[in-house]
């Protein structure tokens, strides 16, 4: 990870939807200017979602997603349709690709209803304009031809107009600090740390600090005390990896604000308040309760992995009970959460806010408490109030 890379979770996700043979893949190729998707006259050529992270002018960093036909049939077809529905959870802008030579189908209308239900801005791109003289004046309708590249630039302009409405003012920590403030960032170097690299939340937090004209000092939990001793003045804030909370809390003076990368990411992704409320469910879990521990990335789990090893151990130690722990990672997240007593999610640096909103709402609608790694660890270490003290409104709900 380099400072100028844009991770998936920070890209605008643009999903192309529609029936088989509507020309989705051809239009995706025309929009991206690449042979991204396989094109064929045979229905159902796209069998799995195709992802492409790229720079798309005039939008900037985007994630293009070409989806299987929503009218696919048979057992495999049903699985493909299910995959397409899952894509809706992370879609910031939807492009419905319809055939201009016919009226909108019931399948097209079903998709439009899903866009509306999920509050997804959408554009209807009527493909095959080379076969029709129809035109459209609506802000979210346009006639295009993937074959002749007709109105492809205009389609990108329409997508960009919707993308411009996305919230670009969010900060990880920049809104909490001032110019020339000094922050200390604690980053454990253990078996789970990526060799020669920083993990994404640490890199993103550092960049946000630098963008605020502030300063950062990196250290490990073992050098933290010496680092603080060498500073002329107390730091504005100490931000630590949640795994080191127990050690770091003992070292950092009470008058210095303390939080974690995971807690900051929960706020950045829009589910911090839910996570704070959800942590309280830990103390009332019954023995044998099912707990879902979910990560947004798909890294290889090490022997000291936080999700599969450290969190379950801390849960057992804190409650004195045994639980049925289930793990999910990457794009896999259960639709049915009703059997779980708790969901503990990672900081979601690899997921966009849209998908985290979907996951949070899924849990809330099924009355399943939802929290995250940093909040859960702080709660079980008895320091939750301190670690969210930089957000005074939240301390009132615990």
Describe the protein in words:
The chain has helices spanning 24-32, 74-88, 106-117, 152-163, 200-211, 224-229, 245-251, 261-268, 272-279, 306-319, 353-365, 373-380, 384-387, 392-395; strands at residues 12-18, 50-56, 60-66, 93-99, 122-127, 141-143, 182-186, 215-219, 237-240, 258-260, 290-295, 324-329, 342-345, 370-372. Strand 2 (50-56) and strand 3 form a beta hairpin. The chain has a 6-stranded mixed β-sheet, with helices on both faces. Strands 8-7-9-10 form a 4-stranded parallel β-sheet, with helices on both faces. Helix content is 33%, strand content 18%. It contains 14 helices and 14 strands. The protein is an alpha/beta fold and 398 residues long. The model is unreliable at 37-46 (pLDDT under 50).
């Amino acid at each position: 990870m380099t400072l100028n890379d844009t991770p998936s979770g920070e890209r605008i996700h643009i999903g192309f939807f529609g029936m088989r043979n509507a020309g989705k893949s051809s239009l995706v190729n025309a929009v991206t200017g690449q042979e991204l998707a396989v094109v064929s006259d045979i229905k159902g050529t796209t069998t799995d979602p195709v992802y492409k992270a790229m720079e798309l002018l005039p939008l900037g960093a985007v994630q293009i997603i070409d989806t299987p036909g929503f009218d696919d049939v048979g057992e495999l077809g049903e699985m493909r349709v299910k995959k397409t529905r899952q894509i809706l959870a992370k879609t910031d802008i939807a492009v419905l690709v319809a055939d201009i030579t016919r009226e909108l189908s019931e399948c097209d209308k079903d998709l439009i209803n899903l866009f509306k239900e999920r509050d997804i801005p959408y554009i209807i791109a009527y493909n095959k304009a080379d076969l029709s003289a129809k035109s459209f004046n609506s802000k979210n309708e346009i006639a295009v031809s993937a074959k002749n590249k007709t109105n492809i630039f205009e389609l990108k302009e329409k997508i960009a107009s919707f993308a411009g409405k996305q919230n670009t003012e969010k900060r990880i920590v920049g809104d909490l600090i001032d110019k020339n403030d000094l922050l200390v960032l604690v980053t454990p170097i253990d078996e789970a740390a990526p060799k020669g690299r920083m993990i994404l939340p640490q890199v993103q937090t550092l960049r946000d600090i630098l963008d605020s004209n502030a300063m950062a000092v990196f250290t490990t939990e073992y050098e933290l005390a010496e680092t603080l001793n060498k500073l002329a003045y107390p730091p504005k804030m100490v931000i630590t990896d949640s795994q080191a909370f127990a050690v770091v809390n003992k070292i950092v003076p009470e008058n210095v604000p303390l939080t974690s990368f995971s807690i900051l990411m929960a706020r950045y992704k829009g589910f911090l308040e839910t996570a704070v409320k959800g942590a309280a469910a830990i103390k009332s879990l019954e023995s044998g309760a099912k707990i879902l521990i979910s990560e947004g990335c798909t890294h290889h789990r090490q022997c000291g992995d936080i999700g599969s090893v450290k969190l379950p151990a801390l849960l057992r130690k804190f409650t004195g009970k045994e639980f049925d722990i289930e793990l999910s990672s990457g794009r896999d997240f259960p639709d049915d959460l009703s059997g779980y007593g708790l969901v503990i999610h990672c900081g979601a640096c690899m997921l966009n806010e849209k998908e985290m909103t979907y996951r949070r709402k899924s849990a809330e609608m099924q009355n399943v408490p939802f929290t995250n790694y940093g909040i859960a660890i702080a709660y079980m270490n008895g320091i939750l109030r301190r670690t969210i003290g930089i957000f005074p409104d939240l301390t009132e709900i615990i």
